[in-house]
Design goal:
This protein is an alpha+beta fold. Helices cover about 40% and strands about 10% of the residues. It has a single domain, classed as Cytochrome p450 (Orthogonal Bundle). Strands 2-3-8-5-4 form a five-stranded mixed β-sheet, sandwiched between helices. Helix 8 crosses helix 11. It binds protoporphyrin IX containing FE. Its cofactor is heme. Pathway: Secondary metabolite biosynthesis. GO terms for molecular function: heme binding; iron ion binding; monooxygenase activity; oxidoreductase activity, acting on paired donors, with incorporation or reduction of molecular oxygen.
């Protein structure tokens, strides 16, 4: 293990100090720069004057992040206030786990089926470009905040379970949870409504439910959108991959129904497309910042109190990992973009997953969802949403580059944003139904 920290030049009890004062932090694509620092200074890189520790190795990340708390959980009203690691914090986390664990997320299936071919796809089909779509989504969101209706029930699967509380907490709307429930347009079966009705009068529990709704919204919206947009862009750029995915679906599912979760195990190539999207394009490339609540020591190094710990998911060195500490169980080593493990690491090649050994059906090896005990709690729901959307889009739509008047392909932007969440920048594409059944579905959805 010492090889991981040899480059730091410190010894037991020393402060990690690979980088000295005056370090300028990268403004764009920080994950790329962090990886360069990792190569130069080691897999743990400490920015002393900013008290930031960057992790470029998954085993180190799990070890450290197992012991630290996230800022995201328990942040209130969309501010960056930290909630102490307390009973309150634990209650909220437990509530989340109970409702988003693998066996609980089946309750979202009906909504996920209903929205798998969402209206935004339909709009694109009608000739609305992705950039116009984003503007439209933005406007809709504003309108929803004005009128107290759901943006995400319109645009995203399953999120409608949360929207009332989200609006209560995020917006300036001071709507009481129960008032919202009764105002709701005939949908009394949402998770939030159901939980709230069980703890009538228990203000602490109601607060926890609202916090879960808020956190879900913050954690789910950008990440899910990013993955689906990356998938769409990848299909436009890789028509051969798209054709192979479509062929698999036509063969296994047929062309007169949509894929379901029951088909998932029979669709390895579609699974591989999903995994390749998540490998190449993790929506939160630097995960969620964690913070050390007290002075700590790791492998003899001093990690000061308040140190921000950033896992570089985008480039992280992916050791075999599990919920337990893996310091002594490192059998399998891979790096998300390590050319020795993933030849042509920057290319979109789903085939690589078909040949690789290991638990292809487990989502635990998708680093985009984070690490160890702090791994994304909504991952089972997210996994279902993204997979189903991919399968349904492949089943029904052709995504292509737009053409100019002469019928030639127009080249499109492949750029990504470089903020906390990484999204494809607006790109144009042509989206057309690929089967008569798909056409019927789209017309029915639009009417
Ligand atoms: C493609 C979709 C998603 C991706 C890529 C994603 C990724 C992540 C990542 C990287 C983290 C930080 C993990 C860490 O600190 O190591 C995280 C945390 C979290 N995510 Fe997700 N997420 C997704 C969807 C969702 C959804 C749908 C929900 C809820 C419905 C959700 C809820 C959460 C929560 C509550 C946390 C904080 C967990 C904690 O601090 O203990 N996420 N997510």
């Amino acid at each position: 293990m010492s090889s991981y920290i040899a480059n730091h030049g410190g010894g037991p009890g020393h402060c990690l100090s690979s980088r000295t004062k005056g370090t300028s932090m990268p403004a764009d694509d920080a994950w790329v720069e962090y990886r360069k620092w990792g190569k130069e200074y080691g897999e743990l890189v400490y920015i002393q004057d900013r008290n930031i520790l960057i992790l470029n190795d998954s085993r180190v990340a799990i070890d450290l992040l197992e012991k630290r708390r996230s800022h995201l959980f328990g942040s209130k009203n969309n501010s960056n206030d930290e909630t102490p690691y307390s009973d309150d914090w634990r209650r909220k986390r437990k509530l989340f786990q109970q409702n988003f664990r693998q066996s609980a997320v089946n309750r979202f299936h009906p909504d996920q089926y209903n929205k798998a071919l969402p209206e935004d796809n339909v709009l694109c089909t009608m000739g609305v470009s992705t950039s116009s779509l984003k503007i439209l989504l933005h406007r809709t969101r504003e309108r929803c905040l004005d009128h107290g209706t759901s943006f995400y029930s319109w645009a995203f699967p399953a999120i409608e379970h949360f929207h009332g509380c989200v609006l209560c907490q995020l917006g300036s709307l001071d709507v009481d949870l129960h008032e919202w429930q009764s105002n709701k347009t005939g949908k009394g079966t949402s998770l939030i409504a159901e939980l709230a009705s069980k703890c009538e009068g228990d203000s602490t529990e109601i607060e926890a439910i609202k916090a879960m709704a808020t956190t879900s919204y913050l954690a789910a919206a950008d990440t899910t959108l990013s993955s689906i947009s990356s998938f769409m862009l990848s299909m436009v750029l890789n028509p051969d991959v798209q054709a192979k995915g479509q062929e698999e679906i036509d063969h296994i599912v047929g062309t007169d129904r949509l894929p379901t979760f029951e088909d998932r195990l029979s669709l390895p190539y579609v699974e591989a497309i999903y995994r390749e999207v998540m490998r190449l394009h993790p929506p939160a490339p630097l995960g969620v910042e964690h913070s050390s609540i007290e002075d700590d020591f790791y492998l003899g190094y001093h990690i000061p109190k308040g140190c921000s710990v950033i896992p570089n998911i985008w480039y992280v060195n992916c050791s075999f990992y599990s919920e337990a500490s893996i310091l002594n169980t490192c059998h399998f080593r891979a790096m998300n973009r390590d050319p020795d493990v993933y030849p042509r690491p920057d290319d979109f090649l789903p085939e690589r997953f078909l040949d690789s050994p290991g638990p292809f059906t487990s989502i635990n090896d998708i680093l985009a969802y984070g690490f160890g005990r702090r791994v994304c709690i909504g991952r089972y729901m997210a996994d279902n949403t993204v997979w189903l959307t991919i399968a349904c889009v492949l089943a029904t739509l052709n995504l292509r580059k737009p053409k100019d008047k002469q019928g030639n392909d127009i080249s499109i932007s492949e750029d990504y944003t470089s903020g906390f969440f990484r999204h494809p920048k607006p790109f144009q594409c042509s989206i057309t139904p690929r089967t008569p059944y798909a056409e019927k579905l789209i017309i029915a959805t639009a009417s």
